[in-house]
Amino acid sequence: MGDLIWILVSAAVVNNFTLALFLGLCPFLGVSGKVETAVRMGAANIFVMVLTALAVWVLNTFLLVSAPYLRIIAFIIVIASLVQIVEMAIKKLSPALFQALGIYLPLITTNCAILGLAIFSTNRGYGLLEGLFFAVGGGLGLTLALVLMASIRENLELADVPDFAKNMGLVLILAGALSLAFMGFAGMFSAA
Amino acid sequence: MTAPATQPPRPSASAQRLIGTLGGFGVLAGLLIVSVFAATQPRIRANKAAALAAAINEVLAAPEHYDTLYVTADSLSHTLPAGGNAETAEAVYLGWREGRPAGFAIVANGPGFQDNIRLIFGFDAASSQLLGMKVLESKETPGLGDKIYKDAEFVAQFTRVRAPLVGVKEGQGEGLPTELVMITGATISSRALIKAINTTLERVGPLLAAYVPQESQP
Amino acid sequence: MSPRKPTPPSQELIKGVWRENPVLVQLLGLCPALAVTNSVANSLAMSAAVLFVLVGSSLLVSTIKRIVPSDVRISTYILIIATFVTIADMILEASVPAVHKELGAFVALIVVNCIILGRQEAFASRNSVGRSLLDAVGMSIGFTLTMVLMGTVREVLGNGTFLGISVMGPHYEPWVIMILPPGGFLTLGTILLVFSWIKRRGEERAKPATAAAGPAVGKAA
Question: Per the domain annotation, does A191 fall within a domain?
C-alpha cells in the first residue's frame, strides 16, 4: 500500500507530471487562461488517463508481450480510438457531461501526458493497480498545475506588464517559479 | 494495395478504400518495424548484457563469470519459472571466482529524494557482508544527492559494512560493523539507499542463505 | 488551402530556421525543448531523432498524398510517424545506449510532437516531394538551433561545461537549478522574452521608415 501511495503522490507533486516531467504542456500553456476551464480540462484528463492505464495494462499483459516493438504504434492507436469512443459515448449517455468536457476531449489525443503516462508506466513495469494509481496521480498533478497556472494568469490580467512580455515567455517564467516551488516536495517519502 | 488514385483526396471514399489504405499502411509499417527490430535487436541485447556484466563486475570485484538465478516465492532457480518473462522476472546474480562462489549481485530500488533510485549491490550471504554498490538509475539533485554515487569515499563503505545497514551521521557512529556514515547534505538520499538494500535483503536474504551453489559453467 | 504563390525553394528551407521557427515562433514541440535540453549532447541527440522522423514522414506523406483518402489521412500520418519514431528509438538504443537512457520516454513522445504532425497536415500533404523535403529539413534545423541554444545555456550555467568540456573554470559554482526542470522553463521563457523584445524594437524602428510592419508570423494549422 505504501508503494501505491508513493506512486500517486510522486506523480501528483514530487515529480509533478507537468512541472517536473514536462508532460501535458499543450493544455498547460494553451488552456490555462481561466480557472473554470482549467478544472474541466484537468477532469477530462484524469478520466482519459485512468482509461488509458486500463488499456495499457491490457495491451502490455496480453498483446505486447510477444511484440514489444509495436508498443508505440499500439499505444497511439489505442489512445486515439479510446478518446474517440469516449467522446461518442459521453455524447450519447450524458449530454451535460459532454457539454462540460466536450471540446477538451479531442485535444487530449495529441497530449503528451496520455502517451507519456502509457510509456512511463510501461518502462517502470507497473501492474494494473500501480498503473491506475500512477494515472490518478498524474492526472491530479496535471490538474493542480493547470489550476495554479490559471489562477496566476487571472491575476496577471490586472498586473502592469510591459507590452513585449505579454506572451508565452512570461507564462513560462511563471511555470519555472511554480516548478521551483514544487521541488520543495522532494524527499517527502524517503525521509521516514 | 489501394486503387490507383486519379484525383486528390475527395471528401468521402468507400469504406473498403478507407480500410484498404489504413490496412495497407499498417502492414507496411509492421514490416518495416519488424525488419529494423530484427536488425537492431542483437546489438540492443548485447548492450544490455554488457551493461549488466559491467555492473556485476563492479560490485563483486570482477568475478570470472556469473549465474543468473531467478527469484521465486521460496527459492532461487536456474531456470525461468513457468510463464515468466526473461526481461522482467526478478533475478539475482551469483558470481564465481576460481571455482568458488564470489557473492551475489542483487538489484534493489526504492524512493529517493526526487524519484526512484535503482541500484545493484554485492552481498556475501554467509557473512552478511556487502561487497560493493553501484547506483544504476537516479534523479537525485546534482551537487547534493548525486554524491551517493559520485562520492568515492561513501561508495567505498559499501565494500565493508554488514547487513542490516544502519545509517549514522558523521562522527556519531559507535564503530559497529553495520554502521554506514551518511553524506552530510545528502542524508535523505543516503537513507534511501540503506532502506532499499535492507528491504530487499529482508525479502531475498533467506533465499540467498538457503541456496546451495552448484558450479555451472557459463 | 488558398492557392500558394510560387515561392523560391530556398525560402522553404530558410523559413523554418527563423521566420517560422517551430519552437520560438510557432510554440510547438515545447515538451522535448524543455525536457531534454539539460545538456548539449542530449539536445543534439533529440534533434537528430526529430530530423529523422520529420524528414522520413514528410517524404513518405508527400509521396503518397494522392492515394490517401482524406477521411483517414490523419490516422495514416500518425501511423507513419509512429513507425519512424519506433525505428529511431530502436536505432538509438542499439547505437548509443547511454544517450537513449538519458532521453528515456521522450524519444517515444516524438509521436505526439505537434511539429511533426503539423508539418504533414500543413505542408507535406499539399506540396511536392522536393519542397516537402526542404521544408522538413528547414524545420529540423530551426528546431535543432533552438534545442542547442537551450542546451548550451543550461549546460554552461548549470554544469559549467559545454558538451562535457569545462568552460567556466575550476572556481565556477554551477547554477544547478538550470539543469533541473525549473531551469528549462526559465531558460525558454527568457529566450522568448528576449526575442519578443528584439522584435518589438525592430518594429518600432521600422515604423517611421516604412508603414509595413515586420513579416507576419503564420501559425501552422
Answer: no
